[in-house]
Amino acid sequence: MVAGWPKVTVSKGMDAFVARHVAAPAVEEITDDGVETSKALAPPTKEWRNQGDGLVRHEHVHAGGQVVPLNLRFDLKTHPWDREHRGLGPHTYLDHPKDTSDGRVVVNIRNCRCWVDFDPQGVARHVKAEDVKVEGTKVTGGWYAEGPLVDKAEAGDYSPGDLPAPGTYFMRRAAARVIAARRAGR
Hints:
Elements: H1 14-41, E1 45-49, H2 58-63, E2 67-69, E3 74-77, H3 80-86, E4 91-94, E5 115-119, E6 127-129, E7 133-135, E8 138-140, E9 143-145, H4 150-155, E10 156-159, E11 163-166, H5 170-183
Antiparallel strand pairs: 1-2, 1-5, 3-4, 6-9, 7-8, 10-11
């Protein structure tokens, strides 16, 4: 027998007390860190803007006001000339006005006067925390991003013609950073 070792008996219900008063605040802190990190890593959004006058071509009038995450492309109707003479499909996917990255789009960018407005908090405003829940000894919590094209901003999207729109993986990277910080004791 070892002298001086106290005997500890956990009273009934103590595990629920620990879940509510020790584990739940820790889960809430982890959730808050995840939200903050995800928002910091989330891509901005971009909005297609046009002059709004009678000279704006039909395809760009319909693109006006379209908002997409920075890593994705705008979806425009293909100009009839490009469809007829270049064999393009009904949609043209542009990273920005005057985009020539696919090497084929001519009419949709010629003499274009459109521009892009950026919103640095575009995707970040869709990141939310789940309420921390305590059910007996089980504690759950987390964070998510839900909004227009948020899933494609995360995982990426490939438009017809293999035009890349790579994922930003901001939620995945945020989770990895939070886990690494916890393991490092921060």
